[in-house]
Amino acid sequence: MRKLPALLLPAALLCVVLLAAPPTPTLRVNDRPLLPRPGLLRAVFRGQLGLVTDYFWILTLNRIGRSRTPTDYRDVYAYADLATDLDPKFATVYWFAGTTIPIHLGREQYANVEESTKLLRKGTRNVPENSRTWFQLAYNLMFFHREYKEAADIITELSRRRDAPAWYSALATRLYAQAGDFDTGLSLAVMMRDGAEDEETRQTYDRRVREILQERVLQQLDAEVERYRTRHGRAPATLEALVEDGGMTRLPADPLGGRFFIGDGGRVYSSASEFRLQVIYDERTADGKRIRPNAHPEGTSSNADTTP
């Protein structure tokens, strides 16, 4: 394609500016800001594409600064998507916009999660060497989508990179346990334990091996409690009721040496662990006190933990 005559370039640039101006109801299509097509911009500004890309990156930042509503933040995606269409290797856009787009609506509900994850996935395809974008994608999968297995796979791969923090492997084992992929989590934990260069690290991963084994038992007990609830229309008062009802021949031993009990919400916990081996969501009471997920009314279970 031939270049446009020089006299037409100012007019073309003016069109870009007008189309990329702060959106109004007349400049929106299908509830999205009206922006130029990437193909048009490449054709018109082949020699200045880097400058045009930077221009739309600045507009992306401008949108972030002006955003107040979930719709405003969703519009950020459109600008960031265009900027990365023009320069697929622009790694900063993927991470910065991807972390900004999701908005908390309250009660653990978020808006614009799909747009954020879509942009981050685009970034991992186009700039696979960028660890920051990969980790943010794993974060989205953990906290927004509850896709723990995929998040664990990503963190495991990141843990093999030279500059990876030591705690990546521990996080991956926790995620595998939450996903129910105990074999993979155990293999990783055993590998880290056996390859540890100091005693403290070895002990840390030795405990993680036992925590994974414990979580596997806890999930099995959860399933038995749910089956009891289905049969009787209520949860059992104690775990011993599962044996008395014939659902289990005996209660399993705790790999960490504690005692299992039924806590609030009908889930099973161990006296040897304050939290289960899952991603911990930092829930707090109205006065700011952190909620312990294994809290239970005193005396409701013969297996209740009496330690503080």
TrEMBL record:
Keywords: Signal. Residues 287-308 are annotated as: Disordered. Residues 1-20 form the signal peptide. It comes from the Bacteria. This is Pilus assembly protein PilG. Residues 299-308 have a biased composition (Polar residues).
